[in-house]
Amino acid sequence: MARPISFEVVPRDPRDELRRKLEAAPAEHAEALLESYELLQELHDKGLLQLLRGALSAGSHIVETTVEAARTDESIRAARNAIVLTKMLGAINPEILEGIAVAAADTLGSYKKPVIEPPGLLSLLGQFRHKELRRSIALINRFLESLGNQICQQARCKE
Questions:
Q1: How many Å apart are CA 83 and CA 76, to the nearest integer?
Q2: How far is CA 28 from the centre of its chain?
Q3: Considering only CA atoms, which of 135, 150, 145, 129 is closest in space to residue 99?
Q4: Are 17 and 24 in contact (CB under 8 A)?
Q5: pLDDT per residue over 77-92, tens digit each?
Q6: How far apart are CA 118 and CA 115, in angstroms?
Q7: Is the pTM of this model over 0.85?
Q8: CA 101, 103, 108 angle in degrees (round to 5)?
Q9: d(CA 137, CA 111)
Q10: Rounded CA gap, 149 and 157, in Å?
């Protein structure tokens, strides 16, 4: 008759396995460990580890303060305005925006001293001969007209 085979399960110690992996890690990951030590030293030298330690210890207070600040009407309006400004900048042709930036630099950035005496009325009228000035005024007029229409729509005014 057959005899049963005795089977004994050797108890497994998970700590022993971890200890073996830890002992083998420096040899297997030597380059990564050296780089991480260098990174830690740089973070320590610049005071970022201390900053992170302080932030972690005051974590709940920082979160509460941030949430309270974000709930204010000003923060909500600022976030909405940022979204609107992003949409507005995305809608503007980059060449036109570059032209505005160059014109602003030419007009405001080129003089060492501001013009003290304003031009006379006849001098101003004489500048209307230049088509570039008339083109710019037409663009400003179109912008102001569109702005007036938007204000009227929001106020639901009647013409």
A1: 11
A2: 40
A3: 135
A4: no
A5: 999 999 999 999 999 8
A6: 7
A7: no
A8: 95
A9: 23
A10: 10
